[in-house]
Amino acid sequence: xxxxxxxxxxxxxxxxxxxxxxxxxxxxxxxxxxxxxxxxxxxxxxxxxxxxxxxxxxxxxxxxxxxxxxxxxxxxxxxxxxxxxxxxxxxxxxxxxxxxxxxxxxxxxxxxxxxxxxxxxxxxxxxxxxxxxxxxxxxxxxxxxxxxxxxxxxxxxxxxxxxxxxxxxxxxxxxxxxxxxxxxxxxxxxxxxxxxxxxxxxxxxxxxxxxxxxxxxxxxxxxxxxxxxxxxxxxxxxxxxxxxxxxxxxxxxxxxxxxxxxxxxxxxxxxxxxxxxxxxxxxxxxxxxxxxxxxxxxxxxxxxxxxxxxxxxxxxxxxxxxxxxxxxxxxxxxxxxxxxxxxxxxxxxxxxxxxxxxxxxxxxxxxxxxxxxxxxxxxxxxxxxxxxxxxxxxxxxxxxxxxxxxxx
Length: 408
What we know:
Blueprint: E1 18-21, E2 27-30, E3 91-93, E4 96-98, E5 119-120, E6 123-124, E7 127-131, E8 136-143, E9 147-154, E10 162-170, E11 177-184, E12 190-193, E13 196-201, E14 207-212, E15 219-222, E16 229-234, E17 238-243, E18 250-254, E19 262-265, E20 274-277, E21 280-285, E22 288-293, E23 300-303, E24 309-315, E25 318-323, E26 328-333, E27 340-344, E28 349-355, E29 358-363, E30 366-369, E31 378-381, E32 387-390, E33 394-398, E34 402-407
Antiparallel strand pairs: 1-2, 3-4, 5-6, 7-34, 8-9, 9-10, 10-11, 12-13, 13-14, 14-15, 16-17, 17-18, 18-19, 20-21, 21-22, 22-23, 24-25, 25-26, 26-27, 28-29, 29-30, 30-31, 32-33, 33-34
């Protein structure tokens, strides 16, 4: 195919074009009969139809001069770019046609990278990071910007002889690093923050233990945590925990001063989860969800007399929580307004986690719900998920023995 001013050198080449003078003194070129129009010029080539002048000026009808605009046949002019022209099943991403159903760099949409995972049905697929030995299970997970930390223990309760192990794996994968191995009662929770990994030492119920998240020696953070310390939450400034006895409490201590323990709430008839958001500590106890200022102050109940209250999560000015007998996640304002159904997960609701990318509900599977509740829930995983944690890029999840990462 010939473009622009290219011509064959054989004897059948079209006659040379003639030049005429315009009233303004400019010269225009009229193609010889039978010659193709210049690339980028309008069809017809004559000035009355808007053909370009030799110098790139507009003709009588104001057509664009040659130099890259699309000609009448839809082909690009010199220097122009071809459109994607993708098939119906494809989308155009950076001028390249891709299949959003299977392209791991554009999974479900342009730029959605699965970060090492495969893409199937427009959803990123989990990547296996670690598998516990037979007879052991991953009980809890937490994460920071570059690593995932997890606790594994025997499936069966071995009482005071239980060997609990705490591990770290880089988000990029590789061999796990065993941080600690302690023989104690079965442990259920770890938390990461302020440069440490924390857990409760249940053989001596008042102790909280920790190890630097970069690795190092295990040390006792405090021996005055209160009986049956179990649920913990770490910010960059302090560690918060609840005690699960009949005279439960919410307590806090800065990372650099375990001797400075503050009791934020007491006489709670058993303490459950605790989550800190901005200036408030949200916590569950008995059949109640409440909050208290982290600097101290009055406890403000948000939800009372709800025996089916399950796990909860907090993001922005919204509190999300599950019910033990429902497939739905419910929501309410952190100020304590009316309860409303928020998201149907299609299965039982277990652990919840939330960040700017959405609310994640573990249980019979893993479901993501948008915060504005205007989008339909997205089912990310269909196996039973026991525990989850979020980083900036990944969702970490356990299905029992297996630890996976899943690009958001």
